[in-house]
Amino acid sequence: MPFSISFVPEIRFGENLHETIGSAAKAFGAHTAAIVIDGFLAQSGLAGRIVAQMQAEGIEARVFSDFAGEPKIAHVRHATEVVTGAEVVIGIGGGSALDIAKIAACCAASGEDAMHYALAANPLPKNPLKKIMVPTTAGTGSETSATNIFAGPEGKKLWIWGAETKADLVLLDPVLTATLPANLTAWCGMDAFIHAFEAATNRNAHAGGKFYAHEALRLLTGALETAVKEPDNMAARGKVLLGSCYAGIAIDNCGTAVAHNISHAMAGLAPVHHGLATALGFEATLAWLVEADTADLHAAAKACGLVDAAELPAFVSGLMDRCGIVRALPKAFAAIDAQMLATEMKAPENQPMRRSTIRDISDADIARFAASIMSLPKAA
Amino acid sequence: MPFSISFVPEIRFGENLHETIGSAAKAFGAHTAAIVIDGFLAQSGLAGRIVAQMQAEGIEARVFSDFAGEPKIAHVRHATEVVTGAEVVIGIGGGSALDIAKIAACCAASGEDAMHYALAANPLPKNPLKKIMVPTTAGTGSETSATNIFAGPEGKKLWIWGAETKADLVLLDPVLTATLPANLTAWCGMDAFIHAFEAATNRNAHAGGKFYAHEALRLLTGALETAVKEPDNMAARGKVLLGSCYAGIAIDNCGTAVAHNISHAMAGLAPVHHGLATALGFEATLAWLVEADTADLHAAAKACGLVDAAELPAFVSGLMDRCGIVRALPKAFAAIDAQMLATEMKAPENQPMRRSTIRDISDADIARFAASIMSLPKAA
């Protein structure tokens, strides 16, 4: 079966690699750099230390950290202003920071507004700024993907997709993930696990993508629980971070499926952490999914150390238990019912993830999955 | 343990992908292209068909095919003349064609002679021409490596190394390998197998490289014998081609070891196919090597479907038997003795492969290995 694997950026892995960001920027020949970094990381002193590294290399560095939560067009535009004139862009943080940095590296190169590229309205510039991506959460895989999400002027979720947005260099430093609280470690880790699982088992799965996805499943299965329970265990943190990166490569080539249909639909209704929403959607659909009984499902189960796919639902629920994931929705979902979720799951922008799922999803299936999700307690 | 994985070019895999070379060049925005292709392939009509593809896309294409055997500086210079002025370079053939194309893409961009870059005398140009690599043998892994070999003005083997020489796009088309004779399929396939094995087990082995190397071992172990015995079995040809490509990624990051010390030493004495020489060197040293009893050796054995590393020597000899590899040296080795081979194995340019080997190689070991190789019959 034919397949293609988009280019994979240079990946460096190791403890305290964040101390080499300045020299990495220097190796790109940069004299000016822009750092897009999560606000709380900037306040922790990390931004200042990286600016100092840059100065030691003779690089003038500016910082943009004025954002929080899901990226909005205003964040992207502000980041683009800061990035314009720099030769290299460094994204440090969770998926939001990385997405903003990747988009800004394109917009700053062309002078165009992000809306010019949203939903593939126009081709991306061929020569974006050089990009170094340094994830501090282990989940989104944005460091190795070509997909970038932000909310448009009317609050609607938009995407910019293209190889031009991909990183040139990825630095994976498990030390940067050590301060991630246990619940975020678990939610992000499950997001990565589900990226790998869905990429390896959906209708677009292929040998090239499965190669990365199965390794991600092996790494995450082996280390996620330990990373949650022993936050300073750098070996476990490292495996989860590398697994998340490989899972990002897998979705970059093969995409996701029903669990992401549900989590994107939930995000359209009320604020909820993407990893938590995806984990809840995955658990609500997995027993139904594995009835498809495909070779890909069995291969994914084997990568998790299981004998066959029938063991997956219990295994995943057990993993979520052991990682302390509370099955509950944020309070904001109190005003939302199953019908509203079902409608959102059928919205046009969520159909690609419905169609890519290995089983056909009927409207009755959607009603059932939505009811299952909305029957969860609404917690704080 | 820290590691880094150099960028991996976009890889497309599928039967008859060579029919898309013209559209791939077009997608790079090229109006002019240069094709570096093995002479016998050019004569088979393949070059003409690709030129016609290019013309259909509005691309003016020139062809360089005036070379055979190991690349010499004259070939590289002639290729650079043909390539100069083109926007994209397409390499089609065995490792020689690909190496020449990759070097010419750099030299044509800068206007410098290849000797300017040999042995890392000067940094490579930052903006080489775009490169599409289409291997027609499954062995060298040149399509995914940064190493390029040619003979200098005095006949001495030289190398040009650097990420700037790497492909932007790799097209893996098993159909192009179907006419490879059985002995070349076996020799090249063993070269790929040994690339993967040595990269996964030498002193520079790391998690990133082993990930690619183990997949290569799985693919090659499963398919090489079938590809040799059933030349039109495209599934087997495809697995060997993909395995060779992944093995190329593995050596690009972790290098080789003693078997390549021996084959490079042999090449310094008389003409011999690189894959055959490497296979002979591997078989002569493997029983000694596995006494090191490392975790990496056992993991490589497992990737070959074995229980542990002690099974490797018999397994490899059996695989070589089943692939019909005759243990014999070319006639040109009649005038060469073990002492000469040992001296060559100790030559400065072959020491990196000696030092990277997981066991220390004493001069007595070298004498023994050289005697073992030179005791082989000298055939036609």
UniProtKB/TrEMBL annotation, chains A, B:
The keyword Oxidoreductase applies. It comes from the Bacteria. Gene3D superfamilies: 3.40.50.1970, Dehydroquinate synthase-like - alpha domain (1.20.1090.10). Residues 10-174 form the Alcohol dehydrogenase iron-type/glycerol dehydrogenase GldA domain. InterPro entries: ADH_Fe/GldA (IPR001670), ADH_Fe_C (IPR056798), Alcohol_dehydrogenase_Fe (IPR039697). The keyword Oxidoreductase applies. This is Alcohol dehydrogenase class IV. Keywords: Oxidoreductase. Residues 185-329 form the Fe-containing alcohol dehydrogenase-like C-terminal domain. It comes from Rhizobium herbae.
